[in-house]
Amino acid sequence: MKLSRSTLSVALLAALAAPAAHAEVALDVIGNSEVSFEGLVQADFYSYGNDLKNLNVDAPDGSDSDNELRRAELVLKGKGPGNFEWVLGYDAKDDKFLDVNVKYKFGNNANHFIQVGQFKQPNSMEELSSTKNNDFIAKGSITNTFGVARRVGVGYYYGDVNWGVNATYFSRELTRNRKHGNGFGLRGTWAPINETGNILHFGLSHMDYDADLGGTAALNTGDIVSFSARPLADISQTLVSTGNITRSDRVATTGFEGLWVRGPFKLQGEYMKTSVQRYGGSPDVDFDGGYISGLWNITGESWGYKSGTPTTPLPDNPGLGMWQVGLRYDTIDLNDGTGNTTTGATTGVLGGEQDAWTVGVNWYWRSNFKFMLNYVKVDSSKWVGGTTRRYVDDNPNITEVRMQFYW
């Protein structure tokens, strides 16, 4: 759904005119379950400083900007009966189900439960954190490219306030024609320091799933997978992409993560390596990437910690709001092969490399509004065959704005 600039302005004014609310709206008690309602609406605007490729998703219309309603999430939650909790979420913008699951807490302990249904898989601290509290408008390249998000499955979590172990078995997404492939996920976290305003966290995760995207047996392509990364702009064209990797069997991703919070400062980083196991004589391929980011709450607030992820507070002064400034370095490498500049012949997979710096300012106003401004500088390089026979650089810059309303 495209939005004109005037439409975005009207949407923003309507949001500002809405009465303040809490993070969720209590509805009723039904069948001994306390039912509440949550929502999230996000609208983005991007202005591109294109280099070679026009990043506009409607290219070649000549425009150097994009705007779109990114999310329109509606979520019902229930606590009870007893030790049960449930959630039913839907994104009206993307026409897909979000979290749809039932959780049973052993001994009513939030750190010991079993979960059945669709939920986020345990493989990325950034992915597992709440979307409404993203530090930057776009998540890291590895999170969107290698991470496994929501899938239908069963999960078991056991831990304490400063450590946790999560194991899942999953299949496809609940929404038809979305990602699929059976697999399992594991994540362990440990916070040797976990005090108010003073947190140190380490995590390790591993995902393994079937490459089940349906190649054509008659053409000897077998199952296929593909990986691509946008230039830290969620609705833009991609600059690096592997294309279809044929005769793929299994995909395995191992991730390392770290987090340090000291008062109003937060330092966070993740690294992922993805391996594609292939058959029929095709060589296995490996890709990797990571990010490191720093965030400063100018207004002095600090972060909390829950189930191996940081939690974002409300502003200490709702009228002033909470102001943040951040810096992130992001890199992803989708190359595992070589290109011959003389003959043009290639081996392996040459999807390209991309590095990016992001500078951001966030303003959380009162309890329900967030405004974000990012500037992204991208350096990418990708092999181009044919008569070109060389790696070609494409180095755009992007200015991004997000307006968000949530309850």
Automatic annotation (TrEMBL):
Signal peptide location: 1-23
Swiss-Prot/TrEMBL keywords: Signal
Name of the protein described by the UniProt record: Porin
Organism (species): Lysobacter silvisoli
